């Protein structure tokens, strides 16, 4: 049961696709206080209550004990004190004696104080114009299922985008990309896509390609395609101010850019220096900007990532001038603690300033809206621009799309990556903990920058991260310019990397099926243990294990120098230990606590009782999903009674989801798996 | 067995107090390569080899997989990628099939690459002039014991400094301090000392007191002393350049300050703006600066903390001018990625720049030495200045002293705190992991800023941190200006805080005895499990439990929302669970792995088999160590056979350590502890 409460005159965000009648009266779960500026919801939390959700945020699966602020932020340092990351995902669940879900549909700033200020009190502060949905349900999965129905079907990526992908800010030219492909394929390591970061453009201008670096781009795309390697260019939010640059000229001519206080095109700066922002909240401008992607699609491109769309602002023209004047006035002074820290603040506060976000405007189809009031919709609508355009340009096939900034609703148009993380072990754990929270909010196609974006990774961190990353739908190794080169072939023990990445391909029939279930049936691909074992108090506290699809539980190693880890099994399970597709052992383990040794080059996962999973048979020469043989599978199973598995297959690219053709149910009995938990050759 | 290898013409650091003959030939454990600039030691590490030591650094107890650079750095963000913190502690142990210790006595930059660059290779790069000591030993404790003998006896703090202490950058005046004392004592919470951060001085001038804030300082010190509360003022490295300020004038007149390239007093800036640095590497200047502490001692002060002595530099005069000119030249430009990032770098790189450290000089008793070559000796010698002065000013009694920056050798003159950490759960774990590494290097009087210095703490984090902090010799809650007020009485569940802090006082007879054992017998107060259970492979991997003194093992909870944790018992132990001194339960547990529930307000620790510990009997009114009744003890023990305990008592202040008077051996049998593991009233 979903109840909808409306406060003030909310802006239509498009987050929700169902028409829910407005509820009169008070929501039963929380006390509502309306002030001049805000709607404040609050309630006491019992000691064991858990807060789930909130999507892309720091800290654990249980969000209690901190405040989270929905305020899309370009912040590359994801330490524990950060209240906001790139996305704004205002859905949470309070789980305790009674459970309920809550979605605040407010595109401005929303604060979820989950016991930071007062340890026992949950307080949510939204703008005075907002819609709040309360979702009843005893079952946590059912609450999410209802919410996901409310917000509409999640984006589905093409199948190739479930392969292993390599990225780096700093692949400058054709030869850099060729070297990366060879580095993988010549070493027998699968690689499906290479990303083109901002380096490929002419002076960081969207929808341009630097002809010195890529002299014949369509030919190069084709050359890669011959090797089944996809090129995925980045698209930035800001459009460079440059005379005769067509995107700029068209935008100016047609009033497609956001306006400043005076009605002029708002000037901010990002990579190219001064830019304008396309007003993607305006339907005409959105259509125009979306159509620009066609220029790359026509050259053979079939995937994109949208970046800097919080939107990130290095500085605004106006504030840079003020800052410069103030700095100049400090010349020759004895700068002490106050004035020197002020100098540093002047420079630091130039970027992503709330003042700037309050100083420009959208034309929401006739209504002038201050950006700050709809800040969290920008990345969403940039991605919606692309998604709507793809439906026009290529209505029959899927194009890869994911974004840095997002708001619930965007999940229908693309996935996200979790932004500029760091090569820290703690960020691997954070990534594990973010996945189920994102899934609750409908964001299924997602993953973190494997190995870490900022800073120098290490061989052990990268390998452990890959051992988790083989389960994330987006499995991409990505790093920043200036950091250690972290393509897997750069390291000492290459075999380990090849073996682990090949396991991803072996698991693809399962991963892809489970992804499609989650997308087409409004379910979660990654789940906290409590979602499937609601009566188990121990499971409720587990912060570093996840259920993946219907059959698996994972317990990644995320600590440096760890030779193993503690694992809690909420029921009897089959432990599968692999160091390669053809090097595997299985052991039945009873419900309970274990310390399990897991060598650096080993993957351990757990098959739930009376569950099975299909494995692809991998030839030695599997380098991309195109090489996968999927006419028959090996099945891995822990079946004491019987099991069923619904397998999804399709052509990997078309948008027709036809249940009777694409789903096939396989049934198994205990005897099928008598031989080492494995069943060969079922077609 | 200690062997000493000398390369080039090393600078005498004073780290070592024993005269070890120089070894000819090559050290057996590592390959040595001498280049024009460096001494490079390297060797292959086996898969299970562990690197211990290196003192104050990030990451785990096992330092493998990262590079650590000894280069004293004022860096308040202790994330995993930081190669240098405030101290330089060049002692490490490689533990594997054979164990050895290694100390690089080089006051310049030393790099320990413990498998970051190549996962299986340890590489140490020191300057071309250095002394390297290799220490043999099968037993890890024995290696440390030898090393500690080499570097001399660790500093011993007065007993009151083992009580609970409160600090905050931002206690401005007498009334602020009074409020803090009342906030604790009126609520029955012990409090022993209040710290005076930079706020107390006149314009951040060392050895001044702002008369507006403290109109009669000696009277105020006395007022506090009546309540047995000590005031601990901060002393900064930089001396403000200000005409008629006596410390400045004397320093200039006598050439006591560090010089620039041209022989003028070097101008850097810190809190007060422009300062000079006392040349504490010069014995005359050191004596002069040390004598300055007397002015505060004469007013009743008996404890200090030395800060900003890496030395931290906000900017140098010269580079600020250059930076300003460069910024001004950028005015009006279209700042793109390159130029805008450059602008940010200009400001960021003003502080703590290697270029500045290379641009000033010490007069080491006649020899002009570039600061960069002896950078890591500065904080050490500032603290040595104080320590040597204390021996002159107050030869018979202990004065509290700890420092931010340090080098091995300084441990004889004071402790350290672990600097400007953050209110992050991960920093609590870091603190746990740093303790044994610091102990190896002789630094015993140490602890972290409980609750976290930067950022807003939360009630649960502070409480869990205190539950670990009650075992650290320095137990101090400290926070930065601008953060949430984090005195324990600011939070909802005050009882929890009172109960936990009172347990510290109950444990003091044990903590103090064990501290004195570690100091007087060259032992470690905190030890990794592997040091006491060398044959136990499982113990070798434990990164979040410590042995504390001879009788205890701790396993702190350091994860938000955790209701318990996994614990490994390397032998049968007695689990003691307390939520208050008078609310305790005990349970014998066999060697093995456990998941143990530990509520937020509970302390759990483990008594080793055939070990005991003394507990103080606490009246309700214990507010400081002065209130402790120590004529008899309650004993807690897990004795299946027999146990002995060597208890240390003294007057807490004098410097005479007379074994026959201060040590007393107590012997116990199994029957003594038949009644609930407790034995009452043994005097």
Which features characterize this protein?
alpha+beta; 41 strands; nine-stranded parallel sheet; six-stranded antiparallel sheet; homodimer; 16 helices; 683 residues; 24% helix; globular
Structural class of chain A: alpha+beta
Q: Which sequence of strands runs across the widest sheet of chain A?
A: 26-25-23-19-14-13-12-28-27
Main β-sheet description of chain A: 9 strands, parallel
Low-confidence stretches of chain A: none
Counting DSSP E segments of at least 2 residues, the number of strands of chain A comes to: 41
Strand content of chain A: 25-35%
Using only C-alpha atoms, the radius of gyration of chain A works out to: 25 Å
| Average pLDDT, all residues of chain A | 97
What percent of residues of chain A adopt helix (DSSP H or I)?
A: 10-25%
- Report the principal-axis shape of chain A: globular
Largest interface (CB < 8 Å): A-B, 72 and 72 residues
Note the total helix count of chain A. 16
Distance between the termini of chain A: 42 Å
Multimerization status: homodimer
């Amino acid at each position: 049961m979903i109840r909808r409460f409306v406060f003030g005159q909310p802006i239509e965000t498009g987050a929700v696709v169902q028409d829910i009648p407005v509820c009169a009266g008070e929501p039963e779960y929380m006390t509502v206080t309306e002030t001049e500026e805000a709607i404040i919801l609050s309630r006491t939390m019992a000691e064991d209550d858990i807060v789930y959700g909130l999507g892309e945020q720091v800290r654990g699966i249980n969000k209690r004990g901190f405040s989270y602020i929905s305020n899309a932020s370009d912040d590359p340092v994801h330490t524990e004190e950060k209240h906001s990351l790139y996305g704004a995902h205002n859905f949470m669940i309070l789980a305790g004696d009674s459970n309920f879900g809550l979605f605040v549909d407010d595109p401005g700033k929303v604060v979820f104080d989950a016991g930071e200020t007062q340890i026992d009190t949950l307080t949510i502060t939204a703008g005075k114009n907002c819609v709040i949905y309360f979702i009843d349900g005893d079952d946590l999965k059912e609450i999410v299922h209802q919410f996901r129905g409310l917000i509409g079907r999640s984006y589905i990526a093409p199948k190739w985008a479930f392969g292993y992908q390599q990225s780096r800010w700093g692949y400058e030219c054709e030869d850099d990309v060729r070297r990366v492909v060879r580095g993988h394929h010549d070493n027998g390591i699968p690689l499906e896509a290479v990303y083109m970061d901002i380096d490929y453009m002419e002076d960081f201008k969207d929808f341009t390609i630097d002809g010195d670096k890529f002299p014949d781009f369509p030919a190069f795309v084709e050359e890669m395609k011959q090797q089944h390697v996809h090129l995925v260019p980045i698209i930035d939010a800001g459009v460079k101010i440059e005379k005769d640059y067509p995107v700029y000229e068209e935008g100016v001519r047609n009033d497609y850019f956001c306006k400043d206080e005076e009605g002029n095109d708002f000037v901010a700066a990002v990579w190219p220096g001064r830019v304008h922002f396309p007003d993607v909240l305006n339907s005409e401008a959105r259509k125009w900007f979306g159509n620009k992607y066609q220029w790359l699609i026509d050259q053979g491109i079939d995937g994109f990532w949208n970046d800097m769309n919080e939107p990130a602002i290095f500085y605004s023209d106006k504030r840079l001038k003020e800052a410069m004047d103030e700095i100049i006035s400090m010349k020759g002074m004895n700068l002490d603690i106050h004035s020197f820290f002020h100098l540093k603040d002047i420079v630091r506060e130039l970027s992503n300033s709330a003042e700037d976000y309050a100083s420009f405007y959208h034309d929401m189809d006739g209504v002038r809206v201050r950006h700050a009031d709809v800040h969290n919709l920008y990345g969403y609508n940039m991605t919606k621009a692309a998604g709507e355009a793809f439906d026009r340009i290529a209505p029959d096939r899927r194009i890869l799309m994911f974004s840095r900034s997002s708001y619930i609703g965007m999940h229908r148009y693309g996935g996200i990556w979790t932004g500029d993380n760091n090569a820290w072990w703690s960020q691997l754990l954070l990534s594990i903990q973010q996945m189920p929270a994102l899934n609750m909010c409908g964001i299924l196609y997602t993953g973190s920058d494997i190995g870490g974006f900022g800073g120098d990774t290490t061989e052990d961190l990268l390998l452990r991260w890959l051992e988790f990353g083989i389960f994330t739908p987006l499995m991409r190794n990505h790093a920043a310019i200036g950091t250690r080169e972290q393509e897997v072939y750069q390291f000492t023990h290459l075999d380990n990397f090849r073996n682990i990445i090949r396991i991803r391909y072996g698991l693809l029939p399962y991963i892809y099926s489970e992804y499609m279930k989650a997308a087409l049936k409004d379910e979660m691909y990654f789940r906290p243990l409590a979602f499937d074992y609601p009566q188990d108090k121990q499971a409720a506290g587990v912060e570093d294990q996840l259920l993946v699809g219907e059959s698996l539980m994972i317990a990644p190693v995320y600590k440096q120098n760890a030779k193993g880890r503690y694992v809690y099994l909420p029921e009897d399970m089959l432990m599968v230990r692999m160091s390669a597709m053809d090097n595997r052992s299985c052991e039945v383990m009873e419900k309970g606590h274990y310390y399990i040794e897991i060598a650096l080059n080993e993957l351990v996962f757990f098959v739930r009782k009376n569950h099975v999973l299909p494995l692809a048979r991998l030839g030695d020469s599997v380098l991309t999903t195109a090489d996968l043989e999927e006419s028959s599978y090996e099945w891995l199973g822990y079946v004491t009674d019987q099991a069923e598995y619904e397998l999804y297959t399709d052509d990997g690219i078309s948008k027709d989801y036809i249940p009777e053709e694409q789903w096939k149910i396989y049934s198994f009995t205990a005897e099928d798996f008598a031989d080492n938990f494995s069943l060969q050759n079922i077609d």
